[in-house]
């Protein structure tokens, strides 16, 4: 592949959430996906049908002419995937938030990271124009090509090295995965009492919207923020039958009090 040209053909390794949603965004941007591979052949076939491309039953059978190969695999499968890739000249990228760019060094001349910062679920399409895409390339030309392609599917593209990307991923887990666990806990508590979880939807929405305009520290509200120990203790009593939830509530309340009251 001539690195002076734009990326026009792509191959995808993987068939999970990232591969499915990112693949759809790529095809919507009129970038041709030539083939996909996943160890789960039935998933490969389903994804290939959605992306109108070929699928292969072994990674060694991937075409060797794509401009870009996207490793949309779990982190612990990246090394095995690149070991079995056929000899190619295109750019190879992974989509991991934590693995360094250099994990791809040695086998490929041009490689990098194409990390979309969003929570993805199969069959639930997000507006990719709003999704931050973090780019890192093995050289300036590779970075430029990846940025150019990323801008076709997103309005929020940034160059970010591996160290900074690790911290971004850490905080992404904090605000997304941990928050979703709290949603799940709240859902279970309310369901047990026959209360509709949907009653919390407006509160959840406003909380998320508010921190787009207000520093999260200043946006904090609630009994712990007010140092209202009486209410905190009442809530802890309500959770006596749920010791694991009680522990989380107690820990987070103490952290809020420390942060705001010393």
Characterization of the model:
This protein is of the alpha/beta class and 262 residues long. Helices cover 45% and strands 14% of the residues. The chain contains 9 helices and 8 strands. The protein has helices at residues 17-28, 41-51, 78-84, 140-153, 162-192, 201-210, 216-219, 229-238, 243-261, and strands at 9-13, 32-37, 54-56, 68-71, 91-94, 111-116, 133-137, 157-159. Strands 3-2-1-4-5-6-7-8 form an 8-stranded mixed beta sheet, with helices on both faces. Helix 4 (140-153) links the parallel strand 7 (133-137) and strand 8. Helix 8 (229-238) packs antiparallel against helix 9. The chain is elongated and about 65 Å long. 29% of the residues are buried. The model has no long low-confidence stretch (mean pLDDT 94).
Strand order of the largest sheet: 3-2-1-4-5-6-7-8
Q: Assign the structural class, choosing from mainly alpha, mainly beta, alpha/beta, alpha+beta, or little secondary structure.
A: alpha/beta
Query: Averaging pLDDT over every residue, what do you get?
Result: 94
Number of strands: 8
> Radius of gyration over alpha carbons?
22 Å
Strand content: 5-15%
Low-confidence stretches: none
Major sheet description: 8 strands, mixed
Overall 3D shape = elongated
**Helical coverage, percent range:** 40-55%
- In N-to-C order, the SSE pattern is EHEHEEHEEEHEHHHHH
Q: What separation lies between the terminal Cα atoms?
A: 58 Å
Tally the helices: what do you get?
9
